[in-house]
Design goal:
Layout (H helix, E strand, L loop, with lengths): L6 E5 L5 E6 L4 E5 L3 E4 L3 E7 L9 H13 L5 E7 L5 E6 L4 E7 L6 E4 L4 E5 L3 E5 L4 H6 L6 E5 L3 E7 L2 E6 L4 E5 L3 E5 L3 E6 L3 H6 L5 E6 L2 E6 L3 H11 L11 H7 L4
Antiparallel strand pairs: 1-2, 2-7, 3-6, 3-10, 4-7, 5-6, 8-13, 9-12, 9-16, 10-13, 11-12, 14-19, 15-18, 16-19, 17-18
C-alpha cells in the first residue's frame, strides 16, 4: 500500500496528545472530533470511509462508509493535508485519560486488530475496516469483543486506550483470557474467540461480565486497565440521583444544571 510517511511526537502523560509532522503534500486521516490544533496551510476535508482504496466511485465510498457504521463509528473521517511549502503540524488529543500507542504497521506484519473505539489517527493509505468474529452466536452476545476494527497497511497508526497499557507477547499455543473491554489491540496472527463465563453463580454475581476474550499465541496483545465503559459506569453510579443529596457530591449539582 502507498502509505504516507509521517513523523510524530507525543506530549503529556495521562491526557496525551500526538503532534503529527507533515511534509508538503502529506496527509493524515483521523476520527471526526479528535482534532486539537493545526498549523496554517493545512487543508481539512471530510470524506467517506478512510479513502485508502483509491476508488473514486460512489459505490466504493459507500462500502467503506458502511463498514464504519457497523462498528458504531461515524460515516465520515477527516483528512488533514499539508498544502504549504514547509513542514506543518497537526495535533490530535486523547478522548479520556490513558495512553496513545504509535503502531508501525510495517513492523507488525501489516495488520492489527483493535477495539472499535480505539483508533485515533493514521497516515493516509492505512485502511480502516472491520474484523468480524467467526462465530455468529458471539456476535449477538459477545458485547465489545465481537465487532472490532482492523488497521492494514505499512504506515503509522495511533491507537488510544484507557489507564495503564500492558503489552504481552504470547508464545505459540500460549492462551490468555481477557475481559472483553480490557482488550485494546492484537496483531493479526493472534487467534481469538469470545467465550461465555462458565458457572451460573459466576455469570450472575461475579461482577466481571458474562464474556471474556480468549487469545492464543503466537502474537502480541495490548491490554488496558481502564476501559471507558468501566470508567463511565463508575462515574454515573457515584453521581447522586435527581432529588438526592447535593452535599459533598458536587457532581450532582452539575447534572442538575441540565435538568428540567
Amino acid at each position: 500500500m502507498n502509505n504516507h510517511e509521517i513523523d510524530y511526537k507525543l506530549y503529556g502523560d495521562d491526557m496525551q496528545f500526538v503532534e503529527v509532522e507533515l511534509d508538503p503534500g502529506e496527509t493524515v486521516i483521523a476520527e471526526a472530533g479528535s482534532l486539537m490544533m493545526m498549523d496554517d496551510q493545512i487543508k481539512m476535508e471530510t470524506i467517506f470511509g478512510d479513502d485508502s482504496s483509491g476508488k473514486s466511485g460512489l459505490m466504493g465510498k459507500l462500502i467503506g462508509a458502511g463498514k464504519r457504521v457497523i462498528t458504531g463509528e461515524s460515516l465520515f473521517m477527516t483528512t488533514f493535508t499539508n498544502e504549504g511549502h514547509g513542514k506543518k503540524h497537526v495535533s490530535f488529543a486523547s478522548p479520556y485519560p490513558g495512553k496513545i500507542l504509535p503502531m508501525d504497521l510495517s513492523e507488525l506484519n501489516g495488520k492489527i486488530i483493535c477495539q472499535k473505539d480505539a483508533f485515533l489517527a493514521a497516515a493516509k493509505g492505512v485502511a480502516v475496516g472491520i474484523e468480524l468474529q467467526r462465530k455468529i452466536r458471539t456476535g449477538f452476545f459477545g458485547g465489545e469483543g465481537f465487532i472490532m476494527q482492523k488497521l492494514e497497511g505499512d504506515g503509522l497508526a495511533f491507537v488510544h486506550a484507557g489507564g495503564t497499557i500492558h503489552k504481552r507477547e504470547l508464545q505459540p499455543g500460549e492462551r490468555l483470557r481477557v475481559d472483553t473491554g480490557c482488550l485494546v489491540a492484537m496483531t493479526g496472527d493472534v487467534d481469538y474467540n469470545i467465550e461465555f463465563v462458565g458457572g451460573v453463580k459466576t455469570a450472575l454475581f461475579g461482577g466481571e461480565g458474562l464474556f471474556f476474550a480468549t487469545l492464543t499465541g503466537p502474537g502480541t496483545v495490548w491490554i488496558q486497565s481502564l476501559p471507558f465503559s468501566r470508567l463511565a459506569s463508575r462515574v454515573f453510579a457515584a453521581a447522586p440521583q435527581k432529588g438526592g443529596s447535593k452535599g459533598e457530591g458536587g457532581i450532582g449539582g452539575f447534572f442538575d444544571l441540565f435538568s428540567d
